[in-house]
Amino acid sequence: MNNPALKIFLDEKSALYNCPDFIESDPVSVPHRFSKKEDIEISGFFAATIAWGQRAAIIRNAMKLMQMMDESPYDFVMHHSNRDLKWIAKFVHRTFNGSDCMYFIKSLRNIYTNYHGMEYAFAKGKNIGEKIHGFRKIFLSLPHLVRIQKHIADPMANSSAKRLCMYLRWMVRSDTTGVDFGIWKNIKPSELACPLDVHSGRVARALGLLGRNQNDWQAVTDLTEKLKSFDPEDPVKYDFALFGLGVNEKF
User: Fold this and answer.
1) What is the pLDDT of residues 220-251, one digit of tens each?
2) 120 φ/ψ sector (left φ>0, alpha ψ -120 to 50, else beta)
3) What is residue 97's DSSP assignment?
């Protein structure tokens, strides 16, 4: 498939999957329950953080966590009591447990109190990899167990940071379909990196978009640069095509 034909193919698949019907069965459905900017940011961050395994289980557990936060995640983060955290201590999704969750809540309160919120915690850095790295330093700046670190990926350690790239897509991208929120303005869609996992990586290699075998940050960079040749202003819209082809069509 030559480049013009491939662009047409990817544009068609992106349009197919980037639609309101996509929301219900995807973790992005969790922040779509909210309208307040901070509630969207926090619920989206938790949903993205636990986004591995079966999507139904991810959504179910993320919804359960929002219920533990009284369906007001920002208010809970900012005003929770120690008694409230006893309920949070019981939360578990695969290897993300209650102690992890409690640290996340404390760190988020620190971010909203001292860094003007999540959007500004991602503000430092010349590129998206550096911005994620900068956020990670802020997020882990409170005393914490070593196990917490595995839940916040670091591109500077060559991690693909798939879940954080997905979270940033949700917060930054904006179009007429309404899947992504576009509530952050300090990062441009053109700066985003394409989320890369087993499914999207397999499809990208099959289509000749990616030559690197490892799903690491270098592969993310390579793939995103290739997608920018199709749409330099919004390369990450093709995440919908790669995801849909891999998960729904078993491409």
Assistant:
1) 999 999 999 999 999 999 999 999 999 989 88
2) alpha
3) E
Q: At what angle do helices 162-172 and 37-49 cross, to 10 degrees?
A: 160
User: Do 121 and 135 contact (CB within 8 A), yes or no?
Assistant: yes
Name the residue type at position 5: A
pLDDT in tens, 100-111: 999 999 999 999
Report the C-alpha gap between 118 and 42 in whole angstroms: 8
In this prediction, residue 84 carries a pLDDT of 87
What is the sign of the dihedral through the CA atoms of 189, 155, 230 and 29?
A: negative
Q: What is the structure's pLDDT at 45?
A: 98
Q: Please, what is the angle between helix 98-114 and helix 128-139, to 10°?
A: 110
Asked whether 240 and 22 are in contact (CB, 8 A), the reply is yes
| DSSP letter, residue 245 | I
